[in-house]
Design goal:
Elements lengths: L1 H8 L34 H16 L5 E8 L2 E12 L4 E2 L6 E2 L4 H14 L20 E5 L5 E5 L6 H6 L12 H6 L14 H8 L3 E2 L12 H13 L3 H13 L20 E4 L2 E4 L16 H4 L12 E2 L1 H12 L3 E2 L2 E2 L3 H7 L13 E3 L4 E3 L2 H4 L8 E4 L5 E5 L4 E6 L10 H10 L4
Parallel strand pairs: 5-7
Antiparallel strand pairs: 1-2, 1-17, 2-3, 4-10, 5-6, 8-9, 11-12, 13-14, 14-15, 15-16, 16-17
Helix pairs in contact: 2-13, 3-7
């Protein structure tokens, strides 16, 4: 299970080490004024280095295929598909291929929570138990020297803000009480295979001991799944219906859903696994077993009952770029406002304070935030925000350079492939 959590965080900068740097400069957010900085351009010729590098990964057997979409000012400057959607059947990857985006789902859920805040239906400092009664009181597992643990009361209630920032102390079933979580059927984010609504799972989860005290540590886990249930309750509809009505359909995200329409089955990218002998195809799963939860089948042949706000969606690079462009523009796209500019500013500010995190990075309301370029140590821009998914996908928004980047692939585990670092280097080297 510990290795699973490391896989989930791979490339997403979620390790727990001292935070370095200040918060986001809000002056860089679009929507405040016309583009204040001198216009920058991207060299199409230099971006071809990125395509060539991705093709090398395919040729070397490190990736089966991938799609990259880079937009500046909302217009594509690079949109490429390389390799294979299904390597065994020689079906090429296409720009409209559909991917399991796992934790990239969290961005939509986080936006939905802020929408409810703007409607006066919740406050960020509301105790979760105000909206989900099972969560009024919680406990924490404290490890003992003999390898066991004791259970103590939480020092305070878990809040909505704690869930958005992953500081509620809730893991993906790891920690001192790992066995109790496993015995309860909770280990990992694979809700697509479940035959019950996520709300029922989340209600049972509240009785289990958490990994840390609320507000004391960054602990990546089920936080956003709980928020999805809050959205369902306060929104008065399923999470799929809320997303469809408030985000997916208005934004024109025509290929984004929790389960795959059967007529689109031929566009779903195959999941591969990196190992010592190279890439192997993950299991074709029609039923849920411990070995195939991360394989091919549940999004098409699963029970279609569980809408996971933390990890459940399917999408395309073009669709996801629509969401990112709305955020880059401060909550508006094509004349329709989804969030106020001030709410987006709040989302992309560092909320961690003194809580330890990755050097040069902070965490906002659903996104990692680049706070110190040198301390972070990779090409980018202070004020940039993003995240990624367990299948090795990644995204970010760079307000200063007016960029959105969406990288889609299906590789779990990803092994030692260094594509995330190369992706950054080869995009930023092309900026004029």
């Amino acid at each position: 299970m510990k290795s699973f959590v490391r896989v989930l965080a791979l490339g997403l900068l979620t390790c727990t080490v001292p935070l370095g740097g200040a918060g986001v400069s809000h002056a860089q957010l679009p929507g405040r004024t016309a583009e204040a900085a001198a216009p920058t351009a991207i060299s199409a010729q230099r971006l071809q280095r990125l395509r060539a590098q991705l093709q090398r990964y395919v040729d070397e057997g490190k990736l089966a295929g991938a799609v990259v979409r880079v937009e500046q000012d909302g217009k594509p400057v690079f949109s490429e598909a390389v390799g294979w959607r299904d390597r065994e059947s020689r079906a090429p990857m296409r720009e409209d291929s559909i991917f399991r985006i796992a934790s990239q789902t969290k961005a939509l859920t986080s936006v939905a929570v802020l929408m409810l805040m703007e409607e006066g239906k919740l406050l960020l400092d509301d105790p979760v138990g105000k909206h989900l009664p099972e969560w009024k009181t919680t406990t924490v597992a404290v490890a003992t020297q003999d390898g066991g643990y004791t259970v103590v009361p939480a020092k305070r209630p878990i809040t909505i803000r704690d869930l958005l920032t992953h500081t509620a102390g809730i893991s993906y079933g790891t920690g001192p009480a790992e066995k109790a979580w496993r015995d309860a059927g909770l280990a990992g984010w694979y809700f697509a295979d479940r035959r019950e609504p996520v709300a029922q799972v989340v209600a049972r989860m509240a009785a289990l001991p958490m990994t840390a005290q609320p507000g004391e540590k960054f602990v990546y886990g089920y936080n956003t799944d709980i928020l999805g249930v809050v959205v369902e309750k306060l929104g008065g509809m399923s999470l799929q219906a809320f997303f469809d009505e408030r985000l997916i359909k208005p934004l024109g995200m025509k290929d984004t859903s929790f389960y795959l329409p059967r007529e689109k089955a031929g566009r779903l990218a195959v999941v591969y696994q990196a190992g010592k002998s190279g890439l192997t195809r993950a299991a074709d799963a029609d039923t849920a077993t411990a070995a195939d939860r991360f394989g091919q089948g549940h999004y098409l042949n699963g029970p279609r009952l569980a809408y996971s706000g933390g990890a459940g969606l399917l999408s395309t690079a073009a669709d996801y770029s629509r969401l990112l462009e709305m955020l880059r523009r401060g909550g508006e796209l094509d004349g329709r406002r989804y969030l106020s500019r001030k709410s987006v500013e709040l989302m992309v500010s560092n909320h961690l304070g003194s809580i330890e995190y990755t050097p040069g990075m902070g965490f906002g309301l659903g996104f990692s935030i680049r706070t110190d370029l040198g301390a972070a140590g990779l090409p980018g821009t202070e004020g940039e925000f993003g995240w990624g998914g367990a299948y090795h996908s990644q995204y970010w928004v760079d307000p200063k350079e007016r960029l959105t980047v969406t990288y889609m692939t299906q590789l779990l585990p990803a092994g030692d492939v260094d594509d995330h670092g190369k992706l950054r280097a080869l995009i930023y080297q092309a900026i004029d």
